[in-house]
Amino acid sequence: MWVLHQLDPESTAYHVLGTLELKGAIDGHRLRTAFQQVVSRHDILLSRHLLANDRPIVEINHDVLPELNHATEGGSTAGQLIQHFANKPFDLEHDTPIRALLIARGPHDHLLSICAHHIAVDGWSMRILANELAQTYQSLSTEHSLDLPPASSYLEYASSHRKWIEKGSVDSQIGYWRARLEGHPGVLNLPTDFPRPAKPSSAGALVERPLPAALASQVSEIAGRHKATPFMVHLAAFLLLLRQHGTGSDVVVAIPIANRNHSESDSLVGTLVNTLPFRF
User: How confident is the model at residue 262 (pLDDT cuts 50, 70, 90)?
Assistant: First the structure.
């Protein structure tokens, strides 16, 4: 992740964004304190990533915590404010890899956006942070003590995982995936409206459509009948759609997995997510 950032430090491809809708009166000072307390629990959120003697190193800085930024919906819509906030590049050498923005849409209507670099968090981590932030803010608001368990160290986990890899523990898995992907060109040939750019870009959009309840029920019924999961049914439908658009019968689909196979990783903030390239 650090190498990718060095190649294109302006890229937003590895920004992880989450936005919460907050209803009711919000105490900005308490929210700032809660956010900083949660960040200070997790070493990777205090990290700086830099070079020393031509080698990448990680330093932990407990002295500088990220601020809670404020904005008001007015000249710019909340969507525009969030987009600008999310697209701001991270300076991983000097700044924390996480930041927050509180947008006021009214006296009792706010949006809280948290943006972090993927070098420090994944989607699972964002849910952990949201839960801890809610508990900490509630504790500060009611002046009741909060007894969160000590946070595990992602840096210790990463070091242990690296030693495990260096012992050759994953050599057989690497061999499996190389054999599984051998001969594939690595390009999905879709009849797109525009030619594929020479340089990949993270600029894009998201199109969402709600799945009608009746159809969702049918998907679950089909999955149960075939001892599968709804995800497998959705994936099968996606593959059929790709083939209808001319991708052929040799398709690779990358599927992210949480990669949290042990109970101790359930509450660990850091990047554990892995992407598996399934070939069909």
Answer: confident
Task: Retrieve residue 252's tokens.
Answer: 């690779």
76 Cβ contact list (under 8 Å, min separation 6): 84
Alpha carbon distance 119, 98 (integer Å): 10
Whole-prediction pTM? 0.89
Sheet holding 98-106, edge to edge: 15-23, 109-117, 98-106, 68-72
What gap in Å lies between CA 49 and CA 56, rounded to an integer? 7
Contacts with 216 (C-beta within 8 Å, 6 or more apart), sequence order: 230
**116: number of Cβ within 10 Å:** 28
Tokens 């759609």 belong to 241
3-state DSSP call for residue 5? helix
Question: pLDDT for 104-124, tens place per residue?
Answer: 999 999 999 999 999 999 999
User: Cβ distance 86 to 15 under 8 Å?
Assistant: yes
CA 52 to CA 58: how far, in whole Å? 10
State residue 264's pLDDT score.
Answer: 83
Q: Which residue has the tokens 């523990």?
A: 169
Q: For 30-64, how does the pLDDT look when each residue is reduced to its tens digit (9 = 90+)?
A: 999 999 999 999 999 999 999 899 899 999 999 99
Taking the CB of residue 93, how many other CB atoms lie within 10 A of it? 12
Q: Residue 126's pLDDT is what?
A: 97
What's the rounded Cα separation, in Å, for the pair 200 and 184? 19
Q: Which one-letter DSSP state was computed for residue 45?
A: G
What are the counts of helices (DSSP H) followed by strands (DSSP E) for the chain? 8, 8
